[in-house]
DNA sequence: CTAACATCTTGCGTTTTGCAAGTCGATTCT
DNA sequence: AGAATCGACTTGCAAAACGCAAGATGTTAG
């Protein structure tokens, strides 16, 4: 499928993480499901970042085989599938929050989204607990 | 140079972070300088993960223009250059530590490096302060 | 049963990556 | 001083990944 198959096998935990979710798109998908409540293929397709459909399905399958997402039928719309974070996926929350915090410090662009950053800054513990409790 | 030039411009802080350091190699270089004390081109070339020389120089230049690394002459060996983390680069420490922590939880491979993970787990605050104080 | 919907697949041109070899300036050796 | 070495890049080319557009498959509503 793609590069994560040939894991670097260096034993380094940083490399392990990057092999699992460290590509151009995976963390954006995880962000969408973690922070924006997105659940379906078509919701992911509508992201501002415009992922290609073949790349999206590739990443969804990859994240599923890595045990970060799990796929099930949508009981309310039986032609949709729902992708949800597993425990392993929810454990990525601190990484996402740290990336957001870092960007809050260093993104100087005028259109940078500061809202989310400030919301996390106010009460990081509470914010994280909220996300994890779903 | 490469994809980070065309930033996604979505304003999302996660996307901003990924555009800056979220590729297959950048965080491994940052890990090497942050955790392993590597400083020069040839030290980075000797990483277990075997980066290609053209990719390495590309990423070093990119991280330099992003203000994460700064390059200077080595006063002790004038045919070497030294790459060091800026404040912006040192601020990535929590992200690296969270990745390591996550891998510590979820890397089941027999040769996973648990040493570093445990060291961080013992006293995360102290470990982070140590790295930041350089 | 047909139309619309949602998820995926395929083909193909472009971009990025990986590998091997070579260049170039600074230092050391003789 | 001239040759060899070292460290930091550069270049050329093949392989892989990506991005786009179009199409195929399965599901449900009318």
Tell me about this structure.
2 copies of one chain form a homodimer. The first copy, chain A, contains 8 helices and 2 strands. By secondary structure, chain A is mainly α. Chain A has 2 domains: about 90 residues, Winged helix-like DNA-binding domain superfamily/Winged helix DNA-binding domain (Arc Repressor Mutant, subunit A); about 45 residues, no CATH class. In chain A, strands 1-2 form a two-stranded antiparallel sheet. In chain A, strand 1 and strand 2 form a beta hairpin. In chain A, helix 7 packs across helix 8. The longest helix of chain A is centred in the last third of the chain and has 14 residues. The two termini of chain A are about 30 Å apart. The model of chain A has no long low-confidence stretch (mean pLDDT about 90). Chains A and B meet through helix 1, helix 2 and helix 6 of A and helix 1, helix 2 and helix 6 of B. The first copy, chain A, binds a DNA duplex (30 and 30 nucleotides) through helix 3 and helix 4.
